[in-house]
Specification:
With 314 residues, the protein is an alpha/beta fold. It has a single domain, classed as Rossmann fold (3-Layer(aba) Sandwich). Helix content is 51%, strand content 10%. The chain contains 16 helices and six strands. The chain has a six-stranded parallel beta sheet, with helices on both faces. The longest helix is centred in the C-terminal third of the chain and has 20 residues. It is globular and about 55 Å long. The protein starts with a helix and ends with a strand.
């Protein structure tokens, strides 16, 4: 009964109603035909990077863009989990749902924009299967991102595990949100023991570095549009540049643009209550350790042009 209620929770709230009477081959054929005339944007993120706000900016232009963030959080997080742990699970149900959602977006718009922090480890397969027209990488200031994860309670609870743990089991505090279990992956084997002893912030540093390295390895040769929340946040000039790059017809007024951020915040988000930029509560040793563990994230954030050959900064 618990599992059934969990499924209902996710699918009544977040998911477009899909017709499951079609075959996967049929959906893929429809997708490929529609794709010839329609556009697809994938907004790539590790999470806590302003990607929900950015996606909302696009979808405020009705008839031009449709889509959303984490619309199928259970399947997306399961896909994330399986690809990270290299479990050979059939991806057809995941892509069936994803393609069906995009087809639904295209019914009322020229372009679909999809976004999820759970595309991280299987991103290359998603790109190959969906053939997007644009790839946006949403990247945020490292300490801001870490504090945002921390404020969401990431890795704060003690994990119950055995001495010979390879893959952590389902923890009791994930009972009401199994997507967090699938999403908050941990190191495997011997690496797990060293990670387990670290503070939650340093565990987050490992997660940030691991996810961004995975993303980079899969898109380093692609044309990338980089979104930096720190520079774009409530910046109308940023919006005008975005509109120019993506050839958006409708123009939002400055006041309408400024209202979008409030619409895009999740209910119950701690980001309104805490200053994510504040690292005064961090110990100096922890700041140094964090910077060392998340070293690739810092490098990519500071000099993205060094790592991507085909880069456009939004």
């Amino acid at each position: 009964m618990y599992f059934i209620n969990t499924i209902k929770k996710f699918y009544n709230k977040n998911t477009i109603q899909i017709d499951y009477n079609q075959t996967y081959e049929s959906i893929s054929k429809k997708y490929n035909i529609k794709k010839r005339k329609k556009k697809l944007i994938i907004n790539i993120t590790i999470g806590r990077s302003g990607s929900r706000w950015l996606t909302k900016i696009f979808t405020e232009h009705q008839n031009e863009f449709n889509g959303g963030t984490e619309r199928d959080v259970l399947r997306e997080s399961f896909y994330h989990y399986c690809n990270y742990y290299k479990l050979k699970i059939d991806d057809a149900p995941f892509f069936y749902q994803l393609k069906s959602q995009i087809l639904e977006d295209w019914r009322n718009s020229d372009s679909s924009i999809i976004c999820s922090p759970y595309f991280t480890f299987g991103l290359k397969k998603i790109i190959k299967e969906l053939k997007p027209d644009y790839l946006i990488l949403s990247l945020n200031e490292p300490f801001f991102t870490a504090n945002s994860f921390y404020n969401k309670g990431m890795f704060k609870n003690t994990l119950i595990s055995s001495k010979n743990c390879e893959i952590t089991g389902l923890q009791q505090y994930y009972n009401n949100d199994i997507s967090h279990y699938f999403g908050r992956v941990t190191p495997v084997g011997k690496n797990f023991k060293a990670w387990y002893k670290k503070s939650s912030r340093l565990k987050i540093a490992w997660y940030m570095n691991t996810t961004i390295k995975s993303i980079y390895s899969q898109i380093k040769n692609e044309k990338i549009y980089l979104f930096n929340l720190k520079k774009a946040d409530q910046n109308y000039k940023f919006y005008l540049n975005l509109r120019n790059i993506f050839k958006i017809k409708k123009k939002l007024s400055k006041s309408d643009f400024m209202k979008i951020k409030k619409k895009s915040l999740l209910r119950g988000s701690n980001d309104n209550k805490f200053n994510n930029k504040n690292i005064n509560s961090w110990k100096n040793k922890e700041i140094k350790s964090f910077s060392k563990i998340a070293n690739f994230y810092f490098k990519l954030y500071k000099k993205p042009e060094k790592y991507f050959k085909k880069l456009t900064i939004i």
